[in-house]
Amino acid sequence: MKTAPQSSQPGQKNKARHQPYNASRPDKSLQGPHASSGYTAPSSTEPSAQPSLPGPSVTKAPKNPKQKQRVRGEKSRRLKAIQDALDDIPNVSYPSSSPPTPAEKYPRTARETIRDFILEIVHKHYSYYTPRSDFEIVSLGTQQYKGKPEDISAYMDKELARAITRYGSLEAVNRWAKDYLDVKAEVTGAKPRPGDYGVFVLPLPDSDYSIRIFPGSLAASEYCLDFVRTATGEPVNSPFKFQLISGPNPSAPMGIGSAMQLRPLEHAFGISQKEIAPGEEKFLLRDGQTCLLRRPGHKDVQFVIPIRRRPEPPKPTNTHFIELPKYI
Questions:
Q1: Count of CB atoms situated within 10 Å of the CB of 238
Q2: Rounded to an integer, what distance in angstroms lies between the CA atom of residue 2 and that of residue 25?
Q3: pLDDT tens-digit profile of 173-205?
Q4: In whole angstroms, what separates CA 84 from the centre of its chain?
Q5: How many CB atoms lie within 10 A of CB 5?
Q6: What is the pLDDT of residues 63-112, one digit of tens each?
């Protein structure tokens, strides 16, 4: 589970800043522009199914005039290939592992695969557009489109044309996108939905706000914390001045540790406080971690993150086990 998918979107040079996944193990291929999702990693029971596709060769700039001429000719041929691909797009079918559904009718996903989480992002931020293929689902979920809604189809066509030129065929691009989306995953940072298990909302004394604690990756023993309005449950970013401090906990599985002030998960990815989307701020915590919230003019608030039970690993048959008490 701990190995995050390393495949990046084919043909896409993504320069947009993204909202983060897991700060302790940043995975740039999965940093989407929306902080509604977190670090995604394949589950421990499913091997990563990332496709192996050839990339363009990299050569040094030629010094010989004839070589320069050949390079210019090669660039011209590539530009023509992109234009030819664009011309053919209106007649192209977009096979997907499941038929595209209008964005406003996307069902509540099971949150079992990367596809589930990316579809939530697409539905939330691009409700005006219905992706025509798995490639478009990946593109919209892992980059930030800043253009006009009426121009998004043309933008997607250009991105697909670049991918086809790089990887050779529409079939190769669609195969990559499907394999990428169908990987089973755990996520840290995805905001909880109504009815999700393991979510705790704790009203703060003398405040209109509560802290909300929700689970992340079980295998990584990760939780997240954010702030919500007590009356409505609406998530907000740092609604007042405070310090969130992680304290030592000798009984926690992560060890004794030391006290340290916690920063929003987004900061680990170079995203400043003002750049965090409204309501998407979150703090990364661990099972069993002791935390202290300090507010000017108020008493400190201390709490301990729950520890989730895990199934006992199978014991080898050729080994003698001597039992000791877990706690004394």
A1: 13
A2: 9
A3: 999 999 999 988 888 888 998 888 899 999 999
A4: 34
A5: 19
A6: 677 776 776 777 666 666 656 655 554 444 444 444 344 433 444 556 78
Q: Which helix (H) or strand (E) holds 185?
A: strand 185-188
DSSP per residue, 187-217 = EESPPP-TT-TT-EEEEPTTSSEEEEEEE--
**Short-list 180, 167, 188, CA closest to 136:** 180
d(CA 145, CA 156) in angstroms, rounded, equals 10
Closest CA relative to residue 277, chosen from 121, 103, 156? 121
Burial 169-200 (b: 16+ CB within 10 A, else e): ebebbbbbbbbbbebbbbbbbbbbeeeeeeeb
How far apart CA 206 and CA 11 sit, in angstroms, is: 52
Total-model pTM: 0.59
Phi, psi values for residue 146, rounded to 5°: -110, 5
CA 248 – CA 100 distance, rounded (Å): 49
Reading the block at residue 106, the tokens are: 């996307």
Are residues 142 and 9 in contact, defined by beta-carbon separation less than 8 angstroms?
A: yes
What is the enclosing helix (H) or strand (E) of 87?
helix 65-88
- Which residue do the tokens 């540790």 mark? 257
Q: Which amino acid is at 89?
A: I
Among residues 283, 190, 208, the alpha carbon closest in space to that of 243 is found at: 283
Identify the burial level of 100 via C-beta atoms within 10 angstroms of its C-beta, where 0-12 means exposed, 13-18 middle and 19 or more buried. Answer: middle
